[in-house]
């Protein structure tokens, strides 16, 4: 008895679907949804008609659920291409359900118990449609991101791998990546031992377009506009992970030419420093490059000095820490405060350093030699 009445109620509503569509559009327009997306008013009307008609057909067995699933998949993919936000799309489908339910309630009249008997069925159909739309949307969005990544990869490969790339080539890549020619970037180049780690750490910002990344000669190069750090400072753990990357940070380089130059300079830095203990700013790492250049001159003593300081790092940690602290601040008083010890302790340690290395790092010339050796890798 109830089943026949249910079929009659749904059939009555199906005969007024154009009115349901207008009710949906009125409520939808009041919400201001879809904003500046590519969905036209005509397409919105047609989609509402299709959704309402198909759901009502499934309710009375006039349509197979698989056909409804196919329609949901098509809608999810289409809206992903049109730039509609997923949450807004799901809200629109829920509005279809609200409008349909209201018209079913009116058609039922005094037979509201018939609706109560079938509300679970209606809810199940709409939920299924929502889930299929959501999955199709996310799959298409992911596919689109993959296509973007592939397109970016081609341009980034040219940027970093081309032996010769003039001003016109840089300009072409800048336009292809939709970047401002005058943009300044922060560039991180991970040592080959940390390339996989940096790629994984920046996967999300690279996927969302907040940063760019590409593998180069075993390293991984990532860059982003200088004023837009790809990792939120509120994400403490991830920020620390970036700071702990074995790599070099080039700040505020100019345009893609600057990013290309940073990627080409990094191998020379790594040759001089070896794997770094943390992300090191390029100006600090360049001491090692200069030290390597001097080491080619036998009389410089740079190779021996580098080895001595490396041994201090391994076997005399307090002395090594005193060297690095003093060279950072240039003051006995400030070094004592930073090391949490008495100034006389700092002086005694510096005298011991002088005995072991022959350097009085309170003198500018000796401090410069210490800096040159300090950042180099011992060979």
Automatic annotation (TrEMBL):
Pfam families: HTH_30 (PF13556), RsbRD_N (PF14361). It comes from the Bacteria. InterPro entries: CdaR-like_regulators (IPR051448), PucR_C-HTH_dom (IPR025736), PucR_C-HTH_sf (IPR042070), RsbRD_N_dom (IPR025751). Residues 321-375 form the PucR C-terminal helix-turn-helix domain. Residues 18-150 form the RsbT co-antagonist protein RsbRD N-terminal domain. PANTHER family: CARBOHYDRATE DIACID REGULATOR. This is Uncharacterized protein.
């Amino acid at each position: 008895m109830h089943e026949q009445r249910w079929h009659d109620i749904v059939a009555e509503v199906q005969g007024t679907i154009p009115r349901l569509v207008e009710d949906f559009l009125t409520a939808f327009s009041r919400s201001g949804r879809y904003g500046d997306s590519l969905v036209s008013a005509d397409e919105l009307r047609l989609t509402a008609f299709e959704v309402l008609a198909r759901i009502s057909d499934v309710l009375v067995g006039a349509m197979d659920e698989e056909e409804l699933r196919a329609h949901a998949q098509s809608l999810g993919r289409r809206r992903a291409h049109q730039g509609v936000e997923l949450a807004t799309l799901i809200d629109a489908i829920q509005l279809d359900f609200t409008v349909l339910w209201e018209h079913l309630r009116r058609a039922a009249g005094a037979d509201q118990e018939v609706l109560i008997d079938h509300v679970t069925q209606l809810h199940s159909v709409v939920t299924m449609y929502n889930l299929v739309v959501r999955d199709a949307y996310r799959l298409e969005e992911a596919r689109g991101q993959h296509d973007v990544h592939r397109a970016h990869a081609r341009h980034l490969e040219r940027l970093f791998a081309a032996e010769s790339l003039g001003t016109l080539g840089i300009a072409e890549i800048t336009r292809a990546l939709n970047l401002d020619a005058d943009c300044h970037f922060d560039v991180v180049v991970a040592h080959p031992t940390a390339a996989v780690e940096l790629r994984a750490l920046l996967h999300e910002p690279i996927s969302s377009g907040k940063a760019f990344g590409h593998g180069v000669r075993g390293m991984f190069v990532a860059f982003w506009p200088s004023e837009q750090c790809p990792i939120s400072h509120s994400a403490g753990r991830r920020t620390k992970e970036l700071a702990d990357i074995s790599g070099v940070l080039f700040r505020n380089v100019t345009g893609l030419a600057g990013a290309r130059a940073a990627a080409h300079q990094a191998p020379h830095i790594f040759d001089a420093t070896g794997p770094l203990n943390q992300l090191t700013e390029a100006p600090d790492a360049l001491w090692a490059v200069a030290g390597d250049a001097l080491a080619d001159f036998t009389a410089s003593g740079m190779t021996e000095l580098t080895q001595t300081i490396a041994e201090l790092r391994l076997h005399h940690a307090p002395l090594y820490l005193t060297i690095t602290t003093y060279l950072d601040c240039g003051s006995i008083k400030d070094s004592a405060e930073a090391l949490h010890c008495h100034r006389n302790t700092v002086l005694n340690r510096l005298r011991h350093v002088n005995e072991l290395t022959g350097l009085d790092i309170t003198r500018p010339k000796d401090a410069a030699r210490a800096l040159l050796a300090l950042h180099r890798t011992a060979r």
